[in-house]
Design a protein that fits this description.
Blueprint (H helix, E strand, L loop, with lengths): L1 H19 L14 H4 L9 E5 L5 H8 L3 E6 L2 H13 L4 E5 L13 E7 L8 H11 E12 L21 E6 L5 E6 L2 H10 L3 E6 L21 H4 L5 E7 L4
Parallel strand pairs: 1-2, 1-4, 2-3, 4-5
Antiparallel strand pairs: 5-9, 6-7, 8-9
Helix pairs in contact: 1-4, 5-6
Bound molecules: S-adenosylmethionine (SAM).
The site of S-adenosylmethionine has 21 residues, from helix 1.
């Protein structure tokens, strides 16, 4: 299943990047403020940042342009090819690795100040294990900030605007990106993510459900694929953000 997700992102990358034209920015997702507004990470200059599921590299490049030492990992070579070109075009030094987020063994214990991920961890079939690994690679006091699909958003029928699936339903589901096609994501409830972070040894400092009734200038997903439509964004936020901290430091 996971190799299908990798192959899908690999073959869809070019069309996805062409459609979205995602700005170089530390973003959190559709209908959401960016890092400049949320200020979850503080000054990243000189910090070691690991980005999980970096895609086209827009966040990794933005971290590097702010003086961070960045490694971006993604398992889709198509996405990484775009990311490498983007970094070169901006004169940004980023280490991009083709690698599965579910295996963080290449990264040493206590080696990163920040682990960041935007809209990638919903594709993982074993998030609790990855959360434990993220805690291992973070320095004491290090920050784990990530965004995923808000679970309620995916329960709404886009035509009738009614909830058509139980919030309690978890496990694999279809991720539908309109003309780009479909792949697989793994559903969760907010409490599942929160408790997995706590069980992994994190202190959860912030859980943010951005007000998606507002328009955010930098949001490249607004209106896309017949999914991120104002009529839906007015009802339910599409993005859920966690900031968790490894104790100590
Ligand atoms: C929606 S894109 C987000 C990309 C980027 N973070 C952004 O915000 O533009 C999801 C990315 O996660 C990557 N991904 C999904 N599962 C992964 C895994 N197990 N290991 C590595 N990358 C993964 C995909 O290849 C894809 O590039």
């Amino acid at each position: 299943m996971t190799s299908d997700i990798r192959d899908w992102w690999d073959k869809t990358s070019e069309a996805y990047q062409a459609a979205c034209e995602i700005p170089v920015d530390i973003h959190y997702g559709p209908g959401s403020p960016n890092e400049d507004e949320l200020k979850l990470l503080g000054d990243v200059a000189g910090k070691h940042v690991l980005e999980l599921g970096c895609g086209g590299g827009q966040c990794s490049v933005a971290f590097a342009l702010r003086g961070a030492r960045v490694t971006g990992i993604d398992f889709a070579e198509g996405q990484l090819a775009f990311a490498r070109k983007l970094a070169a075009g901006h004169g940004a030094e980023v280490e991009f690795l083709q690698h599965d987020v579910r295996d963080l063994s290449p990264f040493a214990d206590d080696s990163r100040d920040v682990v960041f991920s935007a809209f990638a961890l919903m594709y993982l079939d074993d998030r609790p294990r990855v959360f434990r690994e993220v805690r291992r690679v973070l320095k004491p006091g290090g920050i784990f900030a990530f965004s995923v699909d808000h679970p309620l958003f995916r329960k709404v029928d886009l035509d009738t605007l009614t909830i058509v699936e139980s919030y309690n339903e978890t496990g694999p589901a279809v991720d539908d990106l309109g003309e780009l096609g479909t792949t697989t994501m793994y559903r969760y409830r907010i409490g599942d993510l929160h408790n997995a972070l706590v069980d992994a040894g994190f202190v959860v400092e912030r859980l943010i459900e951005p007000d998606s009734r507002k328009r955010y200038d930098h949001d490249p997903w607004f209106g896309r694929w017949g999914v991120y439509l104002p009529k839906v964004l007015d009802l339910v936020p599409p993005t859920l953000i966690f900031k968790a901290v490894k104790p100590g430091g």
